[in-house]
Design brief:
alpha/beta; 6-stranded parallel sheet; 12 helices; 11-stranded mixed sheet
């Protein structure tokens, strides 16, 4: 079967459907997509608000709560414990199928009635100020928080402990200001590292111990700026270059950047793969155009997924098999769903848990054979299902994700604005909503940053009483006791910027989730890389084979 070129119904750009894609769509019994992968990705991410939090009242108890939904949303919003409690039943909102109305119209009506949980919090403890949290404990302002303990200020922090201010770290402990690092311990200010311990300011290093400001090292100890030093020289460097001084961190970054410009740089970050494309892929086989995947096979267009098997078009999910067009899900045979966990054979549903064989449902737990939150017998469900699918096909709905009109979030509230940014005018022109009242405060600071104690050894827990102002956006922020102790223990400076600005800085250091044409700087092989065209003029980008030959 040959590839086919289609024109996206949304952006009007051509996109290609490859021969292996036809096999997947036939298996899932869905038509070929009418939108390009980027527009499909944009639409899914519109439904995920990560870190825009509001103070509002619970629709059940009236108490003040923290929520990802503002006070103006049309549906009820319950506190975490209230939503998971037994004092309400989502089945009472069930509706009959209206064969004269489109599926999405009926789903939208149901969506605006069923209570939503204020913060998505599953089997977690003391994580009320984090969102999208699963099996975690004592985490604060961590968004995309999976199997963590005592972590603060992070985005996609999975299976980690005692870490602060990180972006995309996995199975790591006591890390600070790290980006895309795996299996690391006591690693600071580092990026693209794996298995590194007690090191500072590394880039693309693996298995290193006691190294500073180095690039591309493998299984090395006591290196400073890629030069071997003695243990005594290493310790003297740390004594003479105290990390709480901003000038020292800038010095380390400056020297590291010089090294990056003269040393070979990998076109692709990942390991233990076979036949993959994208970036940040590990332990995978036949995974294409995917980013931030920690395992899987025969999958495509997966973005931030722990494991994807026979899955296309998935975002911010844990373990998936035979899934299509899903956002924040865990299970198998899930299609066009948001926030569906530990479930299988689920279609076009939202925020359902431990369910199977449900269609168009919202807020269900431990249910089977339901449509629009109404219970049916197994036989009746199986009779209605093909009729419902046929009706969706007639309305050109089957196989598509939910339309943007149903999303409860403005473009700037959702995670999409971090990965595919638009300004207010462009977002509204393209038919997206925009939230003009994102919560923040300014002008309430009680102390100036420059007046704070400069020596970390003198940091006091009294600092939690103070209100600070971000040096960048001037919005107010506060410290918590656990982070103060962390900075003191590691001899680090207090942050000069609010969490949102620190997160933005880290995001800007990552390569985009786009593949560009490039040529290996050594063998001239045509390759794909996430390094932008202009960055390819700055760094020497090597294909994986040439890079491995150079480094090992």
């Amino acid at each position: 079967m040959n590839s086919q070129t289609k024109n996206c119904q949304n952006c009007k750009q051509d996109f290609t459907i490859e021969p292996e894609d036809f096999v997947f769509y036939e298996k899932m019994k869905v038509p070929l997509p009418e939108k390009c992968p980027q527009c499909r990705l944009q639409l899914r991410m519109l439904y995920r608000n990560f870190k825009t939090l509001y103070k509002r009242t619970s629709s059940m108890s009236g108490k003040s709560i923290v929520s990802m939904y503002n006070q103006e949303v049309p549906f009820p919003v319950y506190d975490i414990s209230e939503w998971w409690g037994d004092d309400w039943d989502p089945m009472v909102y069930g509706i009959n199928i209206d064969w004269g109305q489109s599926f999405f119209e009926q789903f939208h009506s149901l969506f605006n009635k069923v209570p939503q949980i204020s913060i998505l919090n599953i089997q977690s403890e003391n994580c009320e100020y984090s969102n999208m949290v699963t099996k975690s404990k004592n985490c604060y302002l961590v968004f995309g928080c999976v199997n963590n303990e005592n972590c603060d200020y992070g985005h996609i922090v999975w299976h980690s402990k005692d870490s602060i201010d990180n972006l995309y770290i996995f199975k790591s402990e006591s890390c600070y200001e790290c980006i895309d690092c795996l299996n690391c311990n006591k690693l600071l200010y580092s990026q693209e590292c794996e298995g590194c311990v007690e090191s500072i300011g590394l880039f693309d290093c693996r298995g290193c111990l006691n190294c500073i400001g180095s690039v591309g090292l493998v299984n090395k100890s006591y290196y400073i700026f890629n030069k071997q030093v003695t243990k005594e020289e290493y310790q003297n460097f740390l004594k003479e270059n105290q990390l709480y001084k901003e000038s020292i961190i800038k010095k380390i970054f400056l020297e590291r950047e010089k090294l990056r410009k003269i040393l070979p740089q990998r076109a692709f970050f990942g390991s233990r793969n076979n036949n993959v494309s994208g970036n940040h892929i590990y332990n995978a086989h036949n995974v294409y155009y995917s980013f931030d995947v920690k395992g899987g096979e025969k999958s495509k267009f997966c973005f931030t997924v722990r494991s994807a098997i026979d899955t296309h078009d998935a975002n911010f999910s844990t373990d998936l098999e035979e899934c299509y067009q899903v956002l924040t899900c865990h299970g198998n045979k899930i299609m066009s769903c948001r926030n569906v966990h530990d479930s299988h054979d689920v279609y076009y549903s939202d925020n359902c848990h431990n369910c199977d064989n449900i269609f168009g449902c919202i807020g269900l737990r431990k249910k089977s054979y339901c449509i629009f939150n109404k219970q049916y017998s197994k036989e009746k469900y199986q009779e209605l299902l093909p009729q419902l699918i046929q009706n969706m096909k007639k309305n050109n709905e089957w196989g598509a994700f939910f339309p943007k009109e149903i999303s409860p979030f403005g473009y700037n509230e959702s995670i999409v604005n971090e990965y595919i940014p638009l300004n207010r005018e462009k977002a509204i022109t393209q038919g997206f909503k925009w939230q003009d009242n994102i919560p923040s405060t300014s002008g309430q600071e009680t102390i100036k940053l420059e007046d704070l104690l400069k020596n970390p050894l003198e940091y006091s827990n009294e600092l939690i009483k103070e209100i600070l102002a971000c040096k960048n956006c001037h919005r107010n922020f506060k410290l918590i006791s656990r982070e103060i102790a962390f900075y003191k223990r590691l001899n680090l400076s207090l942050p000069h910027e609010c969490f949102n600005c620190r997160h933005k800085n880290r995001m800007e250091l990552r390569n985009p989730r786009v593949l560009f044409d490039a040529m290996c700087a050594k063998c001239n092989l045509n390759i794909k890389t996430s390094y932008k065209t202009e960055d390819q003029k700055i760094y020497k980008i090597y294909c994986e084979k040439c890079y491995q030959q150079e480094v090992y």
